[in-house]
């Protein structure tokens, strides 16, 4: 299994570029998991994309051992297996119990059971070129599912008209990676490598088109008006009511004085009730052992 093809050096060049771009893509979720470690919470993130990515990387490593001349698939997917395993381990460490158990079940079922089943079936039921073909098409199916994962992000961009969850640099690297591996498959004359990267190229281009459309879109954010709490001095209520009544009387002479006296009388009743409530509250506080009145204060 040669690393560098003397007959077609473009195989090595395109594969090397694919390794570099895929290296960056594998490290893209790193800030997310650093934040998970700092906050000790998964914050609602899902583990399925990382479990599926690990499974896909394992399949491509197996395919690279079966397919002659595909050594560069081994290097990048080995790195991918290590990185995805670290991501999953961090997720399991900080996820809630239900999410943790679901992740472990999926890991055991897909990356353990399904992969071992494929390995045994391909190894014992196929031979020669048919082994490459069967395994190659299995890799195409799962690689396509990985490339189709950004569809949910694209849908979210269209609905919210915001590119916050779709960074341009990541879309660019995904597109560049798809181009590099597409060329690698073409130069290696391997449709199993080329086909899923055609889909990856299309999705990458669509993401950049969406970014160009919505990058300057101004979303209207309606913020809740927060009314600060105020402390009302009941002893001043009578003066406030008097001033308001005087203003109304000066602007509208038709209002009678009896309405003013009625309003002032109501304010006096409210004042007396408030004083009574305060007195009763103070009596209750004095009856409590070791009570601290400051614990009940509310700052605006």
UniProtKB/TrEMBL annotation:
- Which InterPro entries does its entry note? SWEET (IPR047664), SWEET_rpt (IPR004316)
Superkingdom field:
Eukaryota
Q: Where would you find the membrane-spanning parts of this chain?
A: 12-36, 48-65, 71-94, 106-126, 132-153, 165-187, 193-214
Q: How does it sit in the membrane?
A: Multi-pass membrane protein
Q: Does the keyword Transmembrane apply?
A: yes
A Pfam family that the UniProt record links to this protein: MtN3_slv
GO MF annotation, one = sucrose transmembrane transporter activity
Alphabetical keyword list: Cell membrane, Membrane, Repeat, Sugar transport, Transmembrane, Transmembrane helix, Transport
One GO cellular component term of this record is:
plasma membrane
Tell where it localizes.
Cell membrane
Q: What does this protein do?
A: Mediates both low-affinity uptake and efflux of sugar across the membrane.
Similarity field = Belongs to the SWEET sugar transporter family.
Q: What protein name does the entry list?
A: Bidirectional sugar transporter SWEET
């Amino acid at each position: 299994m040669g690393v560098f093809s003397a007959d077609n050096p473009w195989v090595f060049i395109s594969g090397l570029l694919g390794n570099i771009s895929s290296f960056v893509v594998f490290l893209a979720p790193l800030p997310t998991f650093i934040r998970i470690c700092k906050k000790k919470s998964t914050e609602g993130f899902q583990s399925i994309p990382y479990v599926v990515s690990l499974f896909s990387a394992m399949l491509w490593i197996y395919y690279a051992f079966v397919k002659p001349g595909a050594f560069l698939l081994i290097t990048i997917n080995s790195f991918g297996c290590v990185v995805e395993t670290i991501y999953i381990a961090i997720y399991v460490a900080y996820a809630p119990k239900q999410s943790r158990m679901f992740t472990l079940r999926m890991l055991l079922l897909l990356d353990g059971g399904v992969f071992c089943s494929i390995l045994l079936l391909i190894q014992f039921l196929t031979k020669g070129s048919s082994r490459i073909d069967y395994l190659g098409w299995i890799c195409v199916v799962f690689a396509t599912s990985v490339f189709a994962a950004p569809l949910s992000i694209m849908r979210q961009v269209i609905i919210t008209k915001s590119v916050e969850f779709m960074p341009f640099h990541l879309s660019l690297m995904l597109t560049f990676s798809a181009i590099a591996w597409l060329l690698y498959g073409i130069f290696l004359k391997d449709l199993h490598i080329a086909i899923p990267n055609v889909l990856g190229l299309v999705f990458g281009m669509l993401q950049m088109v969406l970014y160009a459309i919505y990058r300057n879109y101004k979303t209207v954010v309606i913020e809740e008006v927060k009314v600060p709490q105020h402390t009302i001095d009941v002893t001043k209520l009578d003066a406030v009511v008097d001033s308001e009544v005087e203003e109304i009387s000066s602007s509208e002479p038709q209002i009678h004085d009896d309405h003013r006296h009625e309003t002032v009388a109501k304010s006096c009743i409210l004042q007396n009730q408030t004083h009574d409530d305060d007195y009763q509250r103070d009596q209750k506080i004095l009856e409590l052992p070791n009570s601290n009145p400051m614990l009940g204060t509310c700052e605006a």
